[in-house]
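Q: I'm building a small set of examples for a reading group on sequence design. Run inverse folding on the following structure and report the sequence directly after it, with nothing in between.
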């Protein structure tokens, strides 16, 4: 069952990686090989974890790229599900799908 309100992965980077290691965004960006703006956008929840960033986070802080990217996917799905009632799609009857 999906989580209903998972944290944005940027918050985990900030609170579980940068803060315990006393790393500034600038220093962590250098370590990750990304711009300061890219990391700032992530930790301030203005950007998500891309597949490449997931690899960088895994190499720098542990876990796996799949875990980091999975956190982003869980967050994205939860956000979309909050708007599910606004997504208007008609159900296709099984028989109609077979005939097509």
């Amino acid at each position: 069952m999906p989580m209903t309100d998972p944290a944005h992965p940027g918050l985990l980077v900030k609170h579980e990686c940068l803060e315990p290691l006393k790393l500034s965004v600038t220093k962590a960006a250098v370590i990750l090989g990304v711009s300061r703006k890219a990391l700032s956008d992530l930790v301030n929840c203005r950007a998500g974890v891309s597949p490449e960033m997931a690899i960088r986070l895994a190499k720098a802080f542990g876990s796996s790229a799949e875990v980091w990217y999975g956190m982003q996917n869980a967050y994205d799905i939860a956000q979309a599900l909050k708007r599910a009632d606004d997504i208007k799609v008609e159900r296709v009857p099984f028989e109609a799908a077979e005939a097509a």
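The domain at 9-84 is CATH 1.10.260.40 (434 Repressor (Amino-terminal Domain)).
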